[in-house]
Amino acid sequence: MHCGCVFASQTVSSLLPFEIKTYASKLRASSAQLPRTQIQINPSDDLSIYGSDKSPANRVSLPSHVNSITSTTNPFVKHCLKLRQSSSYRHAHGSVLVVGTIPIREVCMFQTNKQGMTTEIECLLLHEEAKIPQGLESLSIRIVRVSSLVMKKLSGVQSTESVEAIALMRIPSSFTDLKDDKDIITDCNKWFPSAHRVLVLDSIQDPGNLGTLVRSAMAFNWDGAFLLPGCCDPYNDKALRASRGASFQLPIVSGNWNHLKLLENEFQMKLLAGHPATTTQKLKPVSKLSVEFAQSLAEKPLCLILGSEGNGLSEQARKVCVLVSIPMAGDFESLNVSVAGGIFLYMLQNLV
C-alpha cells in the first residue's frame, strides 16, 4: 500500500553538538548527549529519504535544550508537517501526528489499561497557553510549547481554538504492512490476536470513511481490519480524526488478495461482501441482511468486504464473496460506505 523512494543520506557525525540554522541548514546530533540517534533533516525532500527501517536510528528529534518553537520554518516543524502530509514519509519513520487532546488520551488510556504498556509518545506539542491535558500528567512525556501559527500549520485545521495538543507517536506494532507476495510465507496467525470477525476494505479512498469504519469495527468488537490495495493510509490525519484513536487500538493489516486468501484458508473464513440488491449485472444472487441471516453466521469466522465509494466492489470481490444487501425502502440503490458498513458491522458483530 505504501511506496517510497530511498536516497542516500549523509553520515551524521556523533562528535558535533546540535546546530539549527536556516531552511537548508544541517541538523547534527551528539549521541553522547541525547537518548536517541539523530539524523539530518532536509526539508526539501519530497518522499522518504531515510529508508524503510523504523528503528530508533531513523528517528528525528529536537535538541534536548529546545522547549519551545515559534517559527513555522523550524526544521522539526517541517519534519512533523511531512509526517502529516506524506504516507511514505510516515511509514519510513514509523511516526505519525495525532491531533487533539481526546484521541491522544484515548490512545494512551487504551494501551496502558488494555495492553499493559505505555504508548510511546516521542513528543507532545502543546499550545503555548495550554495546560497539560488531563490524564497525561503522570506520563513521562517530553513537552514542547508551540505558537498558534505552528499549531495551525501542523494541525491542518483553520481554527486552532479547539486544538491544544498534538502528539508525535510511533505507529503501533498492531499495524502490519505486507509489502508484496514475499510476505505470503509469513505466519498469518500473528496478524490478528483473533480472526473470528475481520473487516476487509477494498479500495476505500476517502480517509473519513476509512477512519469511521475502523472506529465502528472497534466499537462492535471486530477483531481487525484488512486493507486491500487502493485503500488510503489509516494514519492519514483525516482518517485518524475520524477513527478517534481506533487506528491505534484495532489490529490493521495492509496486504493483497493473496494474503487475504491465506487468512481465509488458515481460519476457514466465509467471505461476505456488501452489495446493492438492485444492480444491472445479475451475475449471482444477493442475500438480504437480516437478524436470521446474522444468527446463522454467529459461530462462523467471516470476513466482511466493503467496496470503494465510487466503483463499489472489485471484480475479484464480486467473484469470490457471498453478496449481501441491506434492505431499504424506496428507490435508493446504495448507502454511503461508512453508513452501510456500520450497519453490517453491528448486525454481524462478534458475539462468540
UniProtKB/TrEMBL annotation:
Keywords: Methyltransferase, Transferase. One of its GO terms (biological process) is RNA processing. It holds the Pfam family SpoU_methylase. Residues 198-346 form the tRNA/rRNA methyltransferase SpoU type domain. The keyword GTP-binding does not apply. One of its GO terms (molecular function) is RNA methyltransferase activity. PANTHER family: RRNA METHYLTRANSFERASE 3, RRNA METHYLTRANSFERASE 3, MITOCHONDRIAL. This is tRNA/rRNA methyltransferase SpoU type domain-containing protein. It comes from Arabidopsis thaliana (Mouse-ear cress).
